[in-house]
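Researcher: I'd like a candidate sequence for this fold, 171 residues long. If you have to choose between options at a position, lean toward the conservative one.
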């Protein structure tokens, strides 16, 4: 794949790539942007090369995931500070006057809490399958795990999430 084709494919896939980077960064937009920028730089610079052993999408998501993990290792203190800032900001700007907004906010909060209770692998596999529309096999390739392990995390994650949202606390 030449540079022009590579850049065109990256531009085409950018919305999905950003969503995955955001997931890899646990929802922290600045970290996701930094990770995605670093991943794109690696790809354009030739440090990460697509060899055709998987789909371009699977390969790209793997590069983004590895880059995000490296970025997290480098900037753990910055991430902690940003998380505290976002938490304080959310408390200060919460709109409690709109009953519809409150219900939607409570539902979103329940979902975030339930997702937060899942293991990292379960959250990642569910995100790739539901939001990025990858198959479990493709998601396994992105995460660098055997397909059987990915299926196990996928099924257990769905079951646990379903139980928590239904009010049952699963262990």
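Model: Candidate sequence:
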């Amino acid at each position: 794949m030449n540079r022009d084709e590579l850049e065109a494919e990256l531009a085409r896939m950018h919305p999905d790539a950003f969503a995955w980077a955001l997931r890899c960064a646990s929802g922290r937009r600045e970290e996701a942007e930094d990770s995605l920028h670093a991943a794109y730089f690696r790809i354009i610079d030739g440090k990460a090369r697509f060899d055709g052993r998987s789909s371009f999408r699977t390969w790209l998501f793997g590069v983004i995931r590895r880059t995000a993990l490296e970025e997290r290792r480098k900037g753990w203190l910055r991430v902690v500070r940003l998380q505290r800032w976002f938490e304080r900001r959310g408390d200060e700007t919460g709109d409690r006057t709109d009953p519809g907004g409150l219900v939607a906010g409570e539902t979103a909060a329940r979902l975030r809490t339930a997702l937060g209770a899942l293991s990292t692998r379960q959250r990642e596999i569910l995100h790739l399958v539901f939001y990025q529309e990858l198959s479990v096999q493709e998601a396994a390739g992105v995460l660098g795990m055997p397909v059987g392990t990915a299926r196990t995390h996928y099924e257990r994650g769905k079951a646990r999430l379903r139980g928590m949202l239904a009010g049952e606390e699963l262990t």
